[in-house]
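User: Please run a holo structure prediction.
Assistant: Happy to. Please share the sequence and the ligand.
User: Here you go; the ligand is 5-O-phosphono-beta-D-ribofuranosylamine.
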Amino acid sequence: MARLKTGVLISGRGSNMAALAEACADPGFPAEIVLVLSNEPGAAGLGRAQDFGIPTAVVDHRAFPERAAFDAALSDRLEAAGAEFVCLAGFMRLLAAGFVERWRDRLLNIHPSLLPAFRGLDTHERALAAGVLLHGCTVHFVRPDLDDGPIVMQAAVPVLPRDTADTLAARVLEQEHRIYPAALRLVAERAVRVEGERVIHRTGWRNDGSLANPPHP
Ligand code: GRF
């Protein structure tokens, strides 16, 4: 089967992008990264992508007075690179409904919480403040509302007695780097599909056992 041509949108350090790039470096992986696109010219992730030999581009949101024009420029660059699918990986701009609809069910995001808890920013601080005992991360298809959409995969980590936001973030990030490539693999293999705003595994089950805390590869 042809590999799914994927664009990755970043704004910063790009560690999730690098996790995806590492997975895609295996020719047997069902997706390949055709472009890493940043809205921030200084994003450290751009250099990391170049180290993988992946083409990069910058579309600086400051050059666009209107969000719709920025979103259209992003889509145009992605399509020009041949992208059929998009992964948001620490992309810190809100995307308007037009972009989300254009890429509907072809657009994944990773969020550092067990959605629907803690949408938005500062998730680790808020998890500690709320006193939850489990925290984690989620890969989901993107819908116009912030951090909303059908959930593909989640991983939970315990909140430990001495955790700070930083130690908790590090434990979650390790899981992010596992579940993002695993989720992209399932989507690229068409092992999961969206039905009624939920993700269904091809076994017909909501979760065949591989979508929550997936086993180590
Ligand atoms: C990650 O925690 C991701 O879940 C969130 O933004 C952060 C990006 O980190 N959406 P990185 O740029 O992938 O290292």
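The beta strands are 4-10, 31-38, 56-58, 85-88, 107-111, 134-141, 151-158, 192-195, 198-201.
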